[in-house]
Prior knowledge:
With 337 residues, the protein is of the alpha/beta class.
Amino acid sequence: MGVKELHTSYPKVSIIWVNYNSFHIIDIIKESLKALMMLNYPNYEVIIVDNGSTDGSREIIEDYVKQVNVRSIKVKFLKLSKNFGFTGGVNVAYRARDKESKYVAIVNNDAIPSPDYLNNIVTFLEEHSDIGAIQGVVLKRNKPVIDSAAMYVDEALSIFAPFTGKPVSAISKLLYVSYVEGTMPVYRIDAVKKALKGNENDLYVSSAFAYYLEDIFISLMLWNTGYKCIFLPIVVGKHNRGSTIDRYRKIIGIRYYSIRNVIALLYMTNSLEKRKVILRFLRRAVISKRGLAFQRIFIDCLIDGLRLGKFLLRKYGMIDIYKAPLMRRPLLRRIII
């Protein structure tokens, strides 16, 4: 097979893998990296980003990759001076991608990809030019049930994972989804550029969605640009969910980001539910019996979320949330909430 034929039949894919202080799960880390080096696809690179680790995991990873990269896969190892967050690390890797890459994939450092996952996903993308983002079935690492599959949000940006915890046999159809979940997504680079208004440097908007909703934001932007987000009913890997983020949940302040980011993203949509959701958060802050400190956190989330939402609206424009397939909640539940 000649070089031209190789690039035509197997377009270049850049796989992004982000690490931060993962010594406590180093066996899972090694399992993930070894699987990445053994994918049944002939034209990909792996971009490893270390987010300023201080626990020795960076050095272990660097040595281990040299041991298991027996096929001489192109590996770029980017060592950052501090923790830029998951989406910040992703963006650093995205900027370092091979400019010939047609697709970019993310594999969480606690996810173990299946050997044929990339070949199956890229084959489908090559046959469907209207697909901007795609994911398959991700299983739980130690249990033969679904970790993530077809993912949806409703008008209030509540997340629905209807197949999580169910056997693989529970889902066998290709589905349009609200968003492609961030464990093992694959994105069409040209689609991302259009969705982010020509931005060549970022896959995620890390300044806004550092730890929460980054996958929902880019998916909704893709839907608004005319691209589709889909779920393909094939097993792509396994995931030890939460093994990285749970350790640093309090330090990062996930609760703050989860509320702030919902407010911000809702603000820049045309959702009919956004006023109700904002008022609901405000009511929680006012009537909370958990003390002034808790109330202050909620107020900060609201204020910061509205500011961020206004900024994003000016930069990216209004998101028509109804261009994406949404989970419809019963009318009674909407009224009660």
